[in-house]
Amino acid sequence: xxIRESLEQREREYLSEYAALSSQSRxxxxxxxxxxxxxxxxxxxxxxxxCKSFRRLKDKTQVFLAPEGDHYRTxxxxxxxxxxxxxxxxxxxxxxxxxxxxxxLGHDLGHTPFGHAGExxxxxxxxxxxxxxxxxxxxxxLLEKDNQGLNLTWETRDGIRNHxxxxxxxxxxxxxxxxxxxxAYIHHDIDDAVRAGIMKESDIPSEVRAILGNTPGERLDxxxxxxxxxxxxxxxxxxxxxxGGAMRAIxxxxxxxxxxxxxxxxxxxxxxxLIQRLYTYFYKHPDKLPQQFKDLMDRGEKLERVTCDYVAxxxxxxxxxxxxRLFVPKSWEF
Length: 334
What we know:
This protein is mainly α. The chain has a single domain (3-327), classed as Orthogonal Bundle (Hypothetical protein af1432). It is 62% helix and 0% strand. The chain has helices spanning 3-14, 40-49, 52-56, 75-92, 97-106, 115-125, 132-147, 154-161, 172-195, 206-212, 216-231, 241-259, 262-265, 268-284, 291-298, 303-313, 316-327.
């Protein structure tokens, strides 16, 4: 028996009857030999961690665009916080931690520069539309490894595709990540907003604080414990109505007071215009696209989608550099 087979046997013996077992995965689009050490979901996780799009997350905006300070979240730190929350819940419920972690680490790989401002800009300018969850799947299925893709399992890709509020993941592990994403961004966006001076802890409605707690740690503890308590021995991931209602209330409070706050969002209009101008330029000049993206068109991919691919792959800093190179006049040298 190989180490992988031994680990798969341990899953069958220990994990919940509702967990996604590695040995029962629906598999990959392209068949490949099994690893003798790692089950399939562990391999998915490792492939995501080592891919280029994961590394680029460190230079992509979470909420605060180009903040002054070292402690604000980026898309990468958000991803790591989602992963940690999700692993805690999955372990307590005896779900497949490897699959949970793979989905969490991959859920935002397709996000644009400048966060949701960049996503809105591409969705507005591209006639095919743009949604970061679908782009994350496109990243792992096609764009990574010079258009070879990562060849992840069906379950990991399903969880990535369905991580947003409107999504319906097929596995409990995917549902855990879906909740963990909300918990993470509510938790850290409050922390960042307080640091930025946009709000104070005491601004959070008293009825919400009475349920969730008065500190970031208390709120995180309440939300995670509630999911575990209400999902144990169930074929679903759920929250109590009381705590779930409080989470929806604090999310609405954040939309009203932070996500649309002029102080936090003052530069977003510029970022959206930058993204749209980059899209328009490369759509009109496809010969200027890097060779990887030209190759996609040679394979029949539409120019609109390939242009989105290139712009969405950019980090904040790279997008600014390209914009500067294309549109900002340079000093005359002679």
